[in-house]
């Protein structure tokens, strides 16, 4: 089963606003409008069976509405695998984690850079300890600031993996957007997954091949980062950039299946 591990689809009331914010931050014109009715046909054209859908509450007031949207999508669109979200400022995080687990939500998305906290914020400690192996954690890593100043980085993630070894982490963007030079030293070969999203248009070839050579192939997951990029176009670019055969591309597309086999 082919899986896109990294997509976003938003409630119609906020989709336009969120897509404009993404364009302003990344200085990329998104290919999609962030709506389910745009995402699903793109998956069809790419031959992708299922996709993980992410959201991130940028403030505590958004936690419940964002997770309600995830639960709604899970109920109405079984083809998608929605991840929930939390925010360290949200006081009832224990109850919310229980609600997500009871509903069968498989994972949680964190985006320190957008959510306004550092990945090494001590407020995360009890939350990460409580999460343990209960959920997969998709944690955005990297941005334009250097690692010591950026809210997230390969170094910060490596330190959290040392402190919380039970966490099941997916580090998108080949382990760190714009921080690829640090991924081999701090993340490659470790017990975590990397995804291919929002990297193939920017990562230097030397770093791309270095990361790909040092991380287990079965722990590299295909991700398009829709609506910024189109799944089919990203599949083609992945094949070109890494000089992969059709069979090797298919292997990466099916790596995500084992995460949701149970």
Structure, described:
The chain has 262 residues and is an alpha/beta fold. The chain contains eleven helices and nine strands. Helix 4 links the parallel strand 4 (84-85) and strand 5 (107-110). The longest helix has 14 residues, at 63-76.
Looking at this protein, list some descriptive labels.
262 residues, alpha/beta, TIM Barrel, 6-stranded parallel sheet, 3-stranded parallel sheet, 11 helices
Q: How would you sum up this structure in a few lines?
A:
The chain has helices at residues 15-26, 36-46, 63-76, 93-102, 112-115, 125-131, 154-163, 183-186, 205-214, 231-242, 246-254; strands spanning 3-8, 50-54, 80-82, 84-85, 107-110, 136-139, 168-171, 193-195, 220-221.
CATH topology: TIM Barrel
Shape: globular
The level of helicity is 25-40%
Architecture in CATH? Alpha-Beta Barrel
Instruction: Indicate the low-confidence ranges by residue numbers.
Output: none
The protein's oligomeric status is single chain
Number of strands: 9
Briefly note the structural class of the backbone. Answer: alpha/beta
H/E element sequence: EHHEHEEHEHHEHEHEHEHH
The figure for the number of domains is 1
Q: What is the assigned CATH homologous superfamily?
A: Metal-dependent hydrolases
Query: How are the strands of the largest sheet arranged?
Result: 4-5-6-7-8-9
C-alpha Rg (nearest Å): 17 Å
- Count the DSSP helices: 11
Tell me the fraction of residues in β-strands, as a range: 5-15%
What is the class in the CATH system? Answer: Alpha Beta
The separation of the N and C termini measures: 14 Å
Mean pLDDT: 96
Q: Major sheet: size, sense and barrel closure?
A: 6 strands, parallel
């Amino acid at each position: 089963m082919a899986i896109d591990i990294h997509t976003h689809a938003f409630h119609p009331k906020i989709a336009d606003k969120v897509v404009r914010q993404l364009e302003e931050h990344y200085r990329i014109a998104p290919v999609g409008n962030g709506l389910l009715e745009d995402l699903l046909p793109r998956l069809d054209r790419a031959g992708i069976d299922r996709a993980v859908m992410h959201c991130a509450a940028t403030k505590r007031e958004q936690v419940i509405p964002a997770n309600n949207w995830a639960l709604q999508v899970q109920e109405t669109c079984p083809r998608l695998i929605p991840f929930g979200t939390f925010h360290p400022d949200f006081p009832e995080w224990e109850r919310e984690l229980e609600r997500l687990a009871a509903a069968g939500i498989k994972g949680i998305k964190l985006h320190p850079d957008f959510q306004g906290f550092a990945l090494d914020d001590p407020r995360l400690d009890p939350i990460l300890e409580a999460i343990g192996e209960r959920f997969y954690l998709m944690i955005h890593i990297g941005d334009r600031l250097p690692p010591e100043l950026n809210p997230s980085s390969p170094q910060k993630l490596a330190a959290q993996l040392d402190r919380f070894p039970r966490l099941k982490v997916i580090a998108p963007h080949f382990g760190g957007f714009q921080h690829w030079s640090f991924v081999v030293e701090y993340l490659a070969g470790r017990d975590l997954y990397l995804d291919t999203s929002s990297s193939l248009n920017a990562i230097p070839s030397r770093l791309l091949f270095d990361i790909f050579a040092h991380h287990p192939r079965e722990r590299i997951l295909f991700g398009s980062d829709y609506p910024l990029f189109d799944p089919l176009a990203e599949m083609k670019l992945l094949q070109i950039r890494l000089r992969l055969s059709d069979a090797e591309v298919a292997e990466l597309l099916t790596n995500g299946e084992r995460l949701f086999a149970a």
